[in-house]
Specification:
The protein is α+β, with helices and mostly antiparallel strands. It is built from five helices and 13 strands. A hairpin with an 8-residue loop joins strand 3 and strand 4. The longest helix has 12 residues.
Length: 260
């Protein structure tokens, strides 16, 4: 019997770490009004899926918890105003009607939405503050099309890189499971796919547990340590200012030890 990489990764992390898979009932709501819902997305769960066999998605979690809010005319029942990677946890906003969705989307298009992420990265960063401006484009190499790449590393004639900018601030230095690590605040000015993961990698400090961008080597941590911590959407329908609690603390994860 053959098992996929995703199954093997989950199995290894369950055995060696704190891995606790999401369930349909495991939906944490941090804000709810007649216009928007903001949830604290679990790590390792898709937002939605066109594959009917993917029963465990945020869309299905919402449908189970709030069946009266399901819009049958929508492909995935709900209006997600933005995206988070499968492995990323944290604040995720859902609009509950067309007017709210349009208002939120305008804020994203005008880049007036403020997003703050937290991450643990490998190694001790030597600087406390840096701004990374490196374009990102799809990886067109066979077998790697699920990945993105920095434009200088893989731009091709038929793939145009998109500009990307991230401000990075060091919060703490310490050790994760005995290995040097740094806790960061990441402030993206743009919202490119895998932007934060690649910008950290470009500095020589990949995110702890990033299976994809470690050549499938960084499997010991129970999750990828990237979290959408704060989300501010100044919509004219409603001003959304939500915070998803920090999971990268010694109290929550004793493998993270801050250097004193």
């Amino acid at each position: 019997m053959k098992f996929g990489w995703s199954f093997c990764r989950r199995f290894y992390r369950t055995v060696h770490g704190m891995y606790k898979p999401a369930s349909l009932d495991d939906l944490v709501v941090i804000h709810k009004s007649s216009n928007f819902i903001v949830v604290n997305k679990h790590y390792d769960i898709k937002i939605n899926s066109d594959d009917e066999t993917d029963e465990l998605t945020v869309a299905n979690q919402l449908a189970k918890k709030f069946p009266d809010l399901v819009e049958d005319g929508l492909a995935h029942y709900f209006r997600f105003t933005h995206r988070l990677d499968y492995s990323t946890s944290g604040a995720l906003c859902i609009a509950l009607h067309k007017k709210a969705s349009s208002s939120a989307q305008k804020m994203f298009q005008k880049r007036e939405v403020q997003k703050e992420y937290l991450a643990l990265v490998r190694g001790h960063m030597t600087v406390d503050h840096v701004v990374v401006e490196r374009g990102i484009c799809p990886n067109s190499e066979e077998g790697f099309t699920h990945m993105m790449c920095l434009s200088e590393d893989g731009e091709t004639k038929d793939v145009k890189a998109r500009s990307a900018k991230t401000e990075i601030v060091v919060l703490q230095r310490g050790y994760y499971d005995g290995d040097p690590a740094t806790k960061l605040r990441l402030l993206p000015f743009t919202g490119r796919r895998h932007q934060l993961r690649l910008h950290c990698l470009s500095l020589g400090h990949p995110i702890v547990g990033d299976y994809t961008y470690s050549n499938r080597m960084d499997t010991k941590p129970y999750r990828m340590m990237l979290h959408s911590h704060k989300l501010h959407i100044p919509s004219n329908i409603e001003d959304i200012d939500a915070t998803a609690p920090d999971p990268f603390t010694s109290e929550y994860d004793p493998k993270w030890v801050v250097d004193t």
